[in-house]
From TrEMBL:
This is Copper oxidase. InterPro entries: Cu-oxidase_C, Cu-oxidase_fam, Cupredoxin. It comes from Rhizobium grahamii. Residues 390-499 form the Plastocyanin-like domain. One of its GO terms (molecular function) is oxidoreductase activity.
Amino acid sequence: RYGEPIVTRIYNDLPTDRAKNNGFGRNETQLHFHNAHNGAESDGAANVHHFPGTFYDYRWSTALARRDKINTQAGDRRASGPDDNTGLVNVAGDFRELQGSMWAHDHRFFFTAENVYKGNLGAINYYSGPDRGNEELSDGVNLRLPSGKLLGWGNTDFDVNLIFSDCACDAGGQLYFDIFDTDGMLGDVPLVNFGFAPFFEVLPRKYRFRALNACMSRFLKLGLADAKGNPVPIKFIANDGNLVVTPLTLTALPVQGIAERYDFIVDFSGFKIGDRIQVVNHLRHEDGRRPKEELSLARALKGTSEDPVVGPMLEFRIVGAVESVDVPGVILRSTDPDKSQVPATLTEQIPIVTPVRTRLVEFGRSGTGDSRGPNGCTPDCGETVNFPWTIRINGESSHSMNANRISLLIPKAGEVEHWTYKNGGGGWDHPIHLHFEEGITMLRNGQTPGPTENLQRKDVWRLGESGSVTFQIQFGEFGGSYVNHCHNTVHEDFAMLARIQLLTGVAGTPQAAVTPTPNPTEYGVYFTTPEILPEGAPKGWTNTQQVQAQLNTSPKP
Ligand SMILES: [Cu+2]
């Protein structure tokens, strides 16, 4: 909940011997909270992985963005979190930037796909005054979205996280992963919340679902089908954890790239007990490069696709009673009144304004990634891998990930910029993730995008084949070292990431200066002075803090 900071201590209890990994995965980890408003040291992607036998403390701020500019005195009741009963605790910041459906996952550079595939991830819900997780409490702020009523806030009886993924197994039934394939990793086994062929008993009433695509490389297109194969309408209420201004009635969800989250409402009240509804994937892949074809619901249901993850992934079964998960022992019945609501307006639009500057970030494939320097990769990478994936800023030089290189530098808090993420082409698609702040989607291929994207706040954008996306962004309050990267985690590991340096923290603190690069080792951390790409820094910016950064560097332990 907003306003209640959390220290999350992650213990690394993995074997100290790297070879004891059953063929893939790295025994070092950093946990990225996607896409919370946290300081860089707690973002989990600032080259801060830690080793077996150690722990790392993440300060999860639960701060609301723009608290330095908007509603600074915390007088707006919509900018709030639930208290221990049914009241609210106001927080400073902009209620239009409240977030909901988030997640956390491993972000060990060069090994993220292998570690996340092994299960190092989880869903996280943020609760706020408007998005309270209580469907009956009426106080003029609470939207009363389907959730439940037994707890003051955070009910999950009718508000359910669904993590969609795919996996492959070896002959012994263990997870299989090809560490040599840099195109992408496709599984042939569909999973929801890591269960195979799952079903879920629901009452004939409204439910909210929070769908996360947690595949390594697979894009999804999900829709619901009744027993006759007809689409079941849904109401789309949030994109990447950000409420839309107006709920959209759809017959299927939009295509969902890796790491994208879609929240939607299904009203099962028209069904009778015994009915069954399938959640169906319509999108066919042939490889990890990009989705190949969007099938009709009828074709997807036929089960004739050569892609085994096309077709039903989850079955809803309408029942007369279920046991509460919020208060175990309480029986919830189909005859209970459903007092939940889906209001016509969920939040307010943040306007698009004239930017201070624009940037072009191109995600391509030059085949000559420069992650490996004379002393190896930063951080260390697999011994023999090469790096086909590169990122180019403002049309200048192409680079693959090096944690000691700053590709984008943000000089000042609160400056509004317009960024274009462009796909370098070649028959690939890339879902690109920006850490720490959300962008307001303005253009797709230079045109107004469809309603599920247009003016929506997002933190992952599918670029489309040879496509582009333009969004409005500003950074503030915290600073330090963050990244943007492809969330096809295989592309990410080979090494389609670029470091972003924010000088947007409180003036005079380390979060307002260029961060010396932490280099974690088994014996401690040493710091190096990062290189700054000239095209990554705004024109006229000079690094007066560089001397300080050099003073702060330290010898290798
Ligand atoms: Cu990619």
